[in-house]
């Protein structure tokens, strides 16, 4: 995901300064990590450098000066292109859980126990997301939670399948070692 | 572990059952509190559906007993057990199991007619439930003319029309796509919360299990874990 394009999506609604953009981002994407201010300002600087956004006002108030940004025509065009492009599916192998399960197997640690505990944590998260979705009045929030739930569900299926696979593997290893003893 | 300290609505003790030489349940004990929403999950063949069928009195355990709302199911004759189930338990099964010759409103009214309610009363209650489940347009349709989602919502209406204290659902969304399944599930949980009925859902689907406050995992006929979903 390009944060620049996401900010352009917010600027498409009208000019805003960095603080507003951070607030709007966190409201619109409640399931995403809260955006650090530093990242907002560095991204805005990059958008301006690339001609995708421009400074329209520098507001002088009681506090620090605030630069108001607007999307340029080029920026809006880039946003339109981004909205039509499909994203590459994420590579699940990069996930921390996969690394941990594989490392557990290599180290002879309790992989089944870990997978069981991880499943319990994931089920708790799934329940929380399901409850939040039930209470969600806003369609945007609902579809964001649909996405969270679908991902948790995929992780849960992987955790369960892996547990079965690992348990069968360990049983087979025990049987083979028993036969050779 | 139960969600409240109230007297349990369901008490199962030492449930053991085999199909031929294959053990399905091995000394399972379980309490369900009034108003509790509980999921029973586990791999295929783990015994979770057999457990639900024993709780419903649809299957008889080889050993152990089930008490629902203070009534030991094994102390009832078959006919009395059927009557008790109709009054106390709402059953939702994977394929709805509606009577194919009857329309939606007739299917939903059926349990009330069997209870001796007048046709007018039964029709009114059935129509109200079909509206509540947003399938009133199916009232005059037979199951073959409904979509899977509509048929399942009619089946939920039929399970709830007697306002049971206990709702037992076996893979209630198994035959539905995600959107229709989510809707049927939201309605089922919503109605259970409003009416204060306990809801026990057997499922292999984590998204379905995610609506419950408590999850019992069954594996090889035993309870592997039983805990609240924090």
Automatic annotation (TrEMBL), chain A:
This is PadR family transcriptional regulator. Residues 7-79 form the Transcription regulator PadR N-terminal domain. InterPro entries: Tscrpt_reg_PadR_N, WH-like_DNA-bd_sf, WH_DNA-bd_sf. It comes from the Bacteria. It holds the Pfam family PadR. Signal peptide: none annotated.
From TrEMBL, chain B:
One of its GO terms (molecular function) is ATP binding. SMART domains: AAA. The keyword Lyase does not apply. Signal peptide: none annotated. Residues 10-229 form the ABC transporter domain. The keyword Calcium does not apply. Keywords: ATP-binding, Nucleotide-binding, Transport. It comes from the Bacteria. Transmembrane segments: none annotated. PANTHER family: ABC TRANSPORTER RELATED (PTHR24220:SF685), IMPORT ATP-BINDING PROTEIN (PTHR24220). This is ABC transporter ATP-binding protein. It comes from Nocardioides fonticola. The lineage of its organism: Bacteria, Bacillati, Actinomycetota, Actinomycetes, Propionibacteriales.
